[in-house]
Amino acid sequence: MAVGQGAGDPRDESARESVLPSRPLVTGYDPWMNIHHLELFYYVALHGGISAAVRHMPYGIQQPAVSGQIRQLEQDLGVKLFQRQPFRLTTEGNEMLAFAKPFFDRVNAVGAQLGRRAGEQIRVGGSERVLRNYLPEIIRRVQRIHPGLRMSMRTGFQPQLEALLRDGELDLAISTVLHARSAPGLRRVTLVRLPLVLQVHKSSRIKSAAELWARKRIAEPLVSSVPAPENVFQKGLKRLGVEWRPSLEATSLELVTQYVADGQGIGVNVALPELSRHPRVRVLPLIGFDPVEVIAIWRSEPSPVVRAVIEEVQRYARKTWPGLVVPVGL
């Protein structure tokens, strides 16, 4: 303390404030640095702008969200990191990139290296039917190429599965199409297109779907499963000007077949042999109706394991359902 100044001396208060730091001192944990914001800045600096960064981001995020979080980072740091138009890093931006780049450049490589030590793993999402009936055999085949591959599974439909992919909780999803487009940052490929059929009881006098469309009102109860077959079926009915809403919504395609066999109504299903191979069920083709598409969805560039699983799914489908497979590459 200077001579002549007591603890309560108000002299030169402004000078004393001027030596205070403009931002928090780094003392142990520093709360004003948000690592996610730093990651976004890394992609912006790497690709020369916010819009270009959004296109190359390994997960889905909208441009306004990136802009807002970058502004928050600059506010937290108390500096401008780059000039927007035309794009140019400031001195502070170059300093920040020099700090962040070595870390984020090596994130995937370090993750892959640690993953190899622990054994490869894939996290797959899909409907209960896909995970129960088809995936185990597919994974066994992939394990011949990737010994020790471990798998975890999550059930869901397209919206839930895409959310898990965006959040990094899944590596691959196999789903029927509910939305024509996937969320930003996700990639997809069509695996199979499954025609829709009507299922009637063997004793039914109905010989074709056209007989139903010719009626003023369809009295028979409709048995369906949600969401994919029912959504596609209702779109087809709308084109025909026919209204026929479900009386019974089953939780699986197998249950649709069983309810039809039990005389509970007429079912809408997909044309898979195992779903109509019932002694009390007949199948009526649905001409002019769109098929149900089954797609694989993943995030960013597929890893070798994800690629191997998708390719094995395609081989399995070609062998199991010839004629229904869409011949596309990754």
What topology does this entry show?
Layout: H1 13-18, H2 35-47, H3 50-56, H4 63-77, E1 82-83, E2 88-89, H5 91-105, H6 107-118, E3 121-126, H7 128-143, E4 150-155, H8 158-166, E5 172-176, E6 186-194, E7 196-201, H9 209-213, E8 222-225, H10 228-240, E9 246-250, H11 253-261, E10 266-270, H12 273-276, E11 281-285, E12 292-299, H13 304-320
Parallel strand pairs: 3-4, 3-5, 8-9, 8-10
Antiparallel strand pairs: 1-2, 5-12, 6-12, 7-10, 7-11
Helix pairs in contact: 2-3, 2-4, 2-5, 7-13
Summary of the model, kept short:
It is built from 13 helices and twelve strands. It has 330 residues and is of the alpha/beta class.
Attribute tags:
13 helices, 330 residues, single chain, D-Maltodextrin-Binding Protein, domain 2, elongated, 5-stranded mixed beta sheet, 12 strands, 19% strand, Arc Repressor Mutant, subunit A, disordered N terminus, 3 domains, alpha/beta
